Amino acid sequence: NRIKPIEYLLTVCSPFTAHTAGRKFKQNHKHTRWLTMTFDPLVHMATAKRSFIIPMYKKVWSTKREINLFNSADYNFLTEDIFDNCNDIFINASNKTSPLPFLIKHSHTENIEYFNSSMINFVFAGRFYREIRNPEYLLKTFLSMKSSISILHLFITSDCDELIDKYVKRSNGKIIVHTPVSVIEIKKIMNN
User: Fold this and answer.
1) DSSP annotation string for the chain
2) What is the SS3 assignment for 42-93?
3) Of the spans 80-84, 88-92, 165-169, 176-180, which averages the highest pLDDT?
4) Is the predicted pLDDT of residue 18 greater than 70, yes or no?
5) Which of 39, 68, 81, 85 is the most exposed place for a label (fewest CB within 10 A)?
6) How far is Cα 34 from Cα 8, in angstroms, rounded to an integer?
7) Which pLDDT value is given to residue 102?
8) pLDDT attached to residue 54
9) d(CA 160, CA 9)
10) Per residue in 44-67, is it b (16+ CB within 10 Å) or e — as a string?
């Protein structure tokens, strides 16, 4: 920024701290336009609810914090799921908030039976990254369990598909990779 002023700053959440760092940068560099992209709002994350503070107070505090943060951004982009289901957080910033379509093809759960009820079904939904969330330890550990009644369902995107494919082939059907689904869909799947 000292050599050439930064015109635009895009922060991507999760993690939510990316947005808080973006707000701090914006406060120190008023000329920079700050844009947010949110995949998971903090207030709705399960880990944000683990608190020694009274849980309802924590939710109210987190909601206020997020509302203030998104109001201070120049523009906010959200996934369609969040745009449709988290209006309370963006209500004061609705004139500068837009949904972005889910770019990865995803399926819907209607009439799809994912789980065999006679098996123990494990589920991972999200993204694997070769450098920071490498799936090898998870997959190796799962295969070492030697259980004949366990299946691991992966609703994923990744930058290490060849590694995942290697373990899927070794698993004899115990590791299944599904088409990625939206956050709302994975909640339906988990409640199925």
Assistant:
1) --SS---EEEEEESSTHHHHHHHHHHHH-TTSEEEEEESS-GGG-TGGG--SS-HHHHHHHHHHHHHHHHHHSSEEEEEHHHHHH-HHHHGGGGGGEEEE---S-----TT-----TTSEEEEEEEEEBTTTB-SHHHHHHHHHT--SSEEEEEEEEES-HHHHHHHHHHTTTSEEEE----HHHHHHHHH-
2) HHHCCHHHCCCCCHHHHHHHHHHHHHHHHHHCCEEEEEHHHHHHCHHHHHHH
3) 165-169
4) yes
5) 68
6) 6
7) 61
8) 67
9) 28
10) beeebeeeeeeeeebbeebbeebb
pLDDT of 103 above 60? no
Q: Which two tokens stand for residue 125?
A: 């939904």
Which residue from 89, 19, 24 is spatially nearest to 60, judged by alpha carbons? 89
The C-alpha atoms of residue 61 and residue 43 are separated, in whole angstroms, by 9
The pLDDT value recorded for residue 176 is 92
Token duo for residue 145: 């369990």
Two tokens, residue 148? 């004949």
Mean pLDDT of all residues in 145-154: 86
